[in-house]
Amino acid sequence: MRFELLTELIGLTGYIVKEIFIKETELLLILERVGFPVCPNCGQLFINAPKDRRLQRVEDLSISGRRCFLQIDKCRIECSCSYCGAEKIEWLEKYERVSVRYQKWIYAFCKRMTGRDVSIIFGISKHLVYRLDKEGIQKEIDAQEPIEPKRISIDEISRKKGHRYATIISAPNERKILDVVKGRKKADLAPFFKGKGTEWCKGIELASMDAWRAFRTAVKTYCKNAEICFDHFHLAQHFSKAIDKLRINEALKAEKINKEVYKGTRWLLLKNPENLKDTQKPVLEKLLELNKNISIAYILRDKFREIFKAETADDKLIRLTEWMTEARTAKITEITEFLKKIERWEPFIRNSLKHGYSNAFAEGLNNKVRVIQRMAYGYKDFEYLRLKIIQQFNFRNVKSVFD
User: Fold this and answer.
1) Is 400 within the bounds of a domain?
2) Which residue segment(s) compose the domain that 366 sits in?
3) What CATH code is carried by the domain that includes residue 367?
4) Who wins on pLDDT, 113 or 180?
5) How many domains does the chain have?
């Protein structure tokens, strides 16, 4: 045998190297089968003459800087087990034109690089790269052990301009993404919970989310044992909007001589006091001295922050009750409107204070998702975006292709 060493080096089960053609940028290895074709259905050897055969060219890992192609004689068989189709080849998946190890190589690169860059480096179509990457992610998902969390988080992301959203459902304790759903309506979330089954849904004890009604309704419908916890970061955001609305309304009512005091104070009111620069403090103090309503709102905002800093759950609940009483007596329209929201959401806020949970993990995912989207300049294929998000959080570690 002239190519025994090369046959041993490439290690393709059931085939030996018969000939080799060397070009400037590529190698072509002509392979010959050892033994008989194997039925992929029952695994028995097909000793009878194959129904038909054809030459197939398959790309394998490069050798010495040259692209390596394998030419094999592939058979179509009709087995006694009623299978009729292509024979089984261990290192080549059905209908593929690249070897299994080549697929793994592409998949490993796609975990750290954009699909376009991988296609340029390997000199193959970007569509082939995307397909192999999607198939690799799906294989990892199928091989994953079922996640049965006690707590879930739900948050939306913007996937396109024009209010096009997706919803990320995650397990914060396990630090895993459970799924990415297209849309943020109850009807969009329903297939996820139905797919998980009744028993899985019964096991959910806590669900962290923002105040979006569809999330709350979906969890109440399918996870009947779950306590809903509203994220306090979103509550603070709603309060900031109320204060800003108050500032605008007060500025409109102010006398002409005092209007300059209100200009450029939006972020001074919303900033935490400890983060103010020395030059900003006098400007803010002047505004608070000038307008009593804004001064009261600023004090209430500071006390609202203190609710979540209490050491025990009981202290947090007491502080919330006291804050609501104080906000009610202020009788400021914008604060009263915010207070009505707090009263409407009070059971869910108290759950959050009682258990000490927020939606921080889910909110942290958003920044990383934006990076994933920017790397690809956006994804037209939502399914691919979904798989890439799951990949980058659940299967981000790159395994050596030599393992």
Assistant:
1) no
2) 151-231+359-394
3) 3.30.420.10
4) 180
5) 3
| Residue 162, pLDDT above cutoff 70 | no
User: Residues, the chain, total?
Assistant: 403
Q: Which amino acid is at 288?
A: L
Asked whether the beta carbons of 32 and 18 are under 8 A apart, the reply is yes
Band (pLDDT 50/70/90 cuts) for residue 403 is low
Minimum mean pLDDT among 43-57, 174-188, 257-271: which range?
A: 43-57
- Which has the minimum average pLDDT: 198-207, 311-320, 361-370? 361-370
Same domain, 296 and 337: yes
Residue 140 pLDDT more than 70?
yes
Whether residues 9 and 90 fall in one domain? yes
Q: pLDDT tens digits for 336-379?
A: 999 998 888 888 888 888 887 777 777 777 778 888 777 766 66
Residues 208/172, Cβ–Cβ less than 8 Å? yes
Note whether 338 and 376 are same-domain residues: no
Looking at the fold, whether 30 and 46 belong to one and the same domain comes out as yes
Given a cut of 90, whether residue 112 has pLDDT beyond it is no
Structure tokens at 20: 């080799």
Tokens of 94: 């059905």
350 and 364 assigned to the same domain: no
Domain assignment of residue 401, yes or no:
no
